[in-house]
């Protein structure tokens, strides 16, 4: 099973998904992220999916789980870089990605997190 | 209706779900599907492969290039397992219904992503799901 690196950038954690995700990798990533948030005291999580060519219900549910989990640890999550074909497919599949914030790219995702943190 | 095989493989582990996605992606791209339709059929295949693995206890998938009415071309994907089967087909297709802790989106959502969908199952015998998507 492959491991997905989690990078710390200032107050945020960046996860850039570059591989075809298998279900166990998804579970491991959720756990790794929870640990990293606690360890680093990160205030935000950015999940970059610009290299991801499909998101099915299992992967989509991971975004909601990570968002809910990080919120409990006082961190915001934003998913960035979703490809148009993926977005169209997700809507038709019926997955609403409840509670997940999105931004078009990494830069806008960072800005979104910065502004939601304000001066805290 | 001419049918040309485009791939076949067993589904017996988590990594096979990823392999099914890759196999379907390759078949859909070479058949000439648009990027959006490739994404839809790969996503549908991912849901069904996971069902075959998780609910059906493993099985196999077969992919064919198919020709329909008025010469339209498409891809047909058949998922088969010899698992417990589905006692109530109508209930299984209800959006949000899951016998486990899933979202119950797999079957209902997949149905929307493809052009033809058929579900055959016999309790104790197994399940076969066939989907077809036509090239636009
Ligand atoms: N191959 C199969 N063999 C036996 N039962 C199946 C099979 N495929 C689906 N089912 C049954 O149909 C139900 C609905 O399937 P569906 O894929 O819609 O939801 P799910 O797999 O439970 O959740 P999700 O796909 O959203 O994670 C399943 O919970 C399961 O009971
Ligand atoms: Mg399912």
From TrEMBL, chain A:
It comes from the Bacteria. Pfam families: STAS (PF01740). PROSITE patterns: STAS (PS50801). Residues 2-113 form the STAS domain. Signal peptide: none annotated. This is RsbT antagonist protein RsbS.
Automatic annotation (TrEMBL), chain B:
InterPro entries: Anti-sigma-factor_SerPK, HATPase_C_sf, HATPase_dom. Its EC number is 2.7.11.1. One of its GO terms (molecular function) is ATP binding. SMART domains: HATPase_c (SM00387). The keyword Transport does not apply. The keyword Kinase applies. It comes from the Bacteria. Residues 36-136 form the Histidine kinase/HSP90-like ATPase domain. Keywords: ATP-binding, Kinase, Nucleotide-binding, Serine/threonine-protein kinase, Transferase. Coiled coil: none annotated. CDD domains: HATPase_RsbT-like (cd16934). This is ATP-binding protein.
